[in-house]
């Protein structure tokens, strides 16, 4: 068991990373001068295989993304009463940060770290990098429904986890790098209508993924975004308004030979003129069934 003294200001990155024997982490209460742990850096408590619960002290004013990533047994996160920056509102089993715009006074709410059993508050506006890295939120087979209030999800936010999703929030404008990498339980995904960019490795090695629906708004897909999706059968791009830029030729590497990439009717010739899309010539077919092989 670990007890953090209130004389310590910062728990450094990787301080207790991967200590498999650790079952509990306790922070001393701030003293009468308000002294206590102020900063928890990234990975300071990551990959503690036996850690089941943690209480963040009221003195903490800065928590970096991924502070508890990979704690697969963690199922209780509480922020102590009196913390002016963070909370675990309504028993959500997560760390929520409140950001206030200095000019307008408007507040936004960021989910910094979650765990098994986290419920997503309806007012959160973003999810931090590594917030659910190697963390499965719900029991196998249950879909996660993310609130529509969310407009951004950070890199690696759900990577290497057994999560599947009912929908993604319509306010997203990009899918961040490695956001859903190695989420092997995802079978079908519809990219929201406002997304213009799918970043590197976004769905890399999603080995259960069978079908993707791309939005009209999509403009670019980056390297390895769907690499290793070896069960993929259908990439529906029939509604895209313009041919998306591929910044590499291995975006869809290792997909099955019978995977169909459906493009708008009458557009196939133009797709084949695009160097990186031409790599997928045998996969490309128009929405009406016309392909280069017909």
Write the layout of secondary structure elements.
Layout: E1 2-4, E2 10-11, E3 25-27, E4 39-40, E5 53-56, E6 62-63, E7 76-79, E8 86-87, E9 94-100, E10 107-114, E11 126-127, E12 143-145, E13 152-153, E14 164-167, E15 174-175, E16 188-190, E17 197-198, E18 211-213, E19 220-221, E20 234-236, E21 245-246, E22 260-263, H1 268-273, H2 275-278, E23 284-286
Parallel strand pairs: 1-3, 2-4, 4-6, 5-7, 10-11, 11-13, 12-14, 15-17, 16-18, 17-19, 18-20, 19-21, 20-22, 22-23
Antiparallel strand pairs: 8-9, 9-10
What does it look like?
This protein has 294 residues and is mostly beta strands. The strands form 7 sheets. Strands 8-9-10-11-13 form a 5-stranded mixed sheet, with no helix packed on it. The protein starts with a strand and ends in an 8-residue tail after the last strand. The protein has helices spanning 268-273, 275-278, and strands at residues 2-4, 10-11, 25-27, 39-40, 53-56, 62-63, 76-79, 86-87, 94-100, 107-114, 126-127, 143-145, 152-153, 164-167, 174-175, 188-190, 197-198, 211-213, 220-221, 234-236, 245-246, 260-263, 284-286. It is elongated, with a radius of gyration of 22 Å. A hairpin with a 6-residue loop joins strand 8 (86-87) and strand 9.
